[in-house]
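Bumping my old thread because nobody answered last time. Still need a sequence for this structure:
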């Protein structure tokens, strides 16, 4: 397959409610979509970087720059390629996994559409439906009643697992209250690096609430701190931000820094690297789950498919489109009895609504035409 043009579409998509984490509050998502033009047809990709470098160092304007000046030119000059060649092609460029992942995703979508093959089929997915969990932000008004109302609406919608965002000052009491009201719901927490090693004793208080896991309590770089925490608390430690590659996954497991891994293809450089991490975890008997980055239907479709792989034995952040967006840029994903159906059509398997993209478009860049 030859790449003819990389088209970058930047949109501002409003969120149905503010999403607040320990690293900030978002009210709209700065969405970066790749529309790849190849000699075998079009492919779609989504870059999951945020508007600002708060979750990780990547951000949309930086992604646009690195794609335009370093990654797209390599794709355009590569000649005949497949998705499995892309990571090697991008290797000389350091880091920028979300930017690389978006392009690799678009190459794979075009490739699979040309072959008439679905994402699930390509990766060897074993499930037709995957269970849906939802990530609940810190209430914008700091009120417990706001949190409880939001959790109640998701429980009513049928989500089978709740994840609460926590930070110092918003942790034990929130978990205690949600646990009091829903004694049996599968529950977990995500700190997005908000704590330090000195907080291990404080976080040990979570042990009495039967949580599935605590996600990324400490700094991205602090694998040894996570190992120390995992050794001192009963709640299983899960890593998100720390796992930036197959090598860090292997290192984290060797160091016993976590017993569960959240896989986000964007964070590790693409769906193929995500599959490699999955395979490592399957081999070692480590549970993984699908993380989310408030994707539109484009990224969501691929994430849902990945969650059908065998090591995905923990419920993922796989919510329906309307949890984040009143209007998505694909057919909306909807819950069916707490589950999401894995797309079976070729490529990502969902129709992209270009008229909706046009409605929210803030910038369009063409590279290579
Ligand atoms: O840490 O998992 C996270 C959203 C943006 C950035 C980081 C995270 C999240 C979420 C949302 O928790 C998960 C989702 O998309 O459903
Ligand atoms: Mg997380």
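Sorry it took so long. Here it is:
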């Amino acid at each position: 397959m030859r790449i003819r043009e990389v088209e970058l579409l930047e949109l501002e998509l409003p969120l149905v409610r503010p999403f607040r984490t320990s690293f900030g509050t978002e009210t709209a998502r700065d969405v970066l979509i790749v529309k790849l033009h190849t000699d075998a047809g079009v492919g779609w990709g989504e870059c999951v970087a945020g508007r600002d470098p708060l979750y990780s160092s990547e951000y949309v304007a930086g992604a646009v720059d690195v794609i335009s000046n370093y990654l797209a030119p390599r794709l355009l000059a590569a000649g005949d390629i497949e998705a499995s060649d892309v990571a090697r092609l991008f290797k000389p460029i350091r880091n920028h996994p979300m930017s690389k992942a978006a392009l690799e995703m678009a190459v794979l979508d075009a490739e699979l559409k040309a072959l008439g093959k679905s994402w699930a089929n390509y990766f060897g997915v074993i499930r037709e439906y995957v269970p849906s969990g939802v990530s609940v932000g810190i209430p914008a008004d700091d009120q417990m009643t706001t949190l409880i109302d939001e959790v109640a609406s998701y429980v009513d919608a049928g989500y089978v697992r709740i994840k609460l965002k926590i930070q110092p000052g918003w942790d034990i009491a929130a978990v205690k209250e949600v646990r009091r009201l829903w004694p049996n719901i599968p529950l977990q927490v995500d700190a997005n690096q908000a704590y330090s090693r000195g907080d291990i004793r404080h976080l040990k208080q979570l042990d009495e609430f039967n949580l599935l896991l605590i996600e990324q309590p400490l700094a991205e770089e602090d694998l040894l701190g996570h190992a120390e925490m995992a050794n001192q608390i009963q709640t299983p430690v899960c890593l998100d931000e720390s796992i930036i590659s197959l090598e860090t996954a292997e290192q984290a497991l060797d160091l016993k820094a976590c017993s569960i891994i959240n896989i986000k293809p964007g964070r590790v450089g693409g769906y193929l690297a995500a599959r490699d991490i999955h395979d490592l975890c399957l081999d070692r008997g480590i549970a993984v789950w699908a993380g989310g980055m408030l994707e539109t239907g484009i990224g969501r479709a691929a994430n849902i498919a990945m969650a059908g792989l065998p090591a995905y034995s923990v419920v993922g952040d796989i919510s329906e489109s309307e949890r984040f967006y009143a209007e998505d840029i694909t057919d909306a994903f909807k819950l069916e009895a707490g589950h999401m159906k894995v797309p079976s059509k070729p490529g990502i398997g969902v129709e992209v609504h270009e008229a909706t993209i046009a409605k929210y478009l803030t910038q369009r860049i063409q590279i290579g035409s």
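The mean pLDDT is 98. Let me know if any region looks off to you.
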